[in-house]
Amino acid sequence: MFQQSVDRARGTAKSDLWLFIWLIVGFFTIGTAVVYLEKLFSSTIPRYVFIGLALCALYLIYRLRLVGYRYTIFYKEAEPVYDPRFDDMIMHEDYQYPVGTLVFERIVSAKGTILLTVDRSDIVALTAPGEAAPAGEIAHTADYSCTKSDRAHTLFFRKNGELCSLLFAPDEEFLCCYKEMLENAASPAEPVKEGGEE
Question: Hey, is 74 helix, strand or coil?
Answer without folding.
Answer: strand
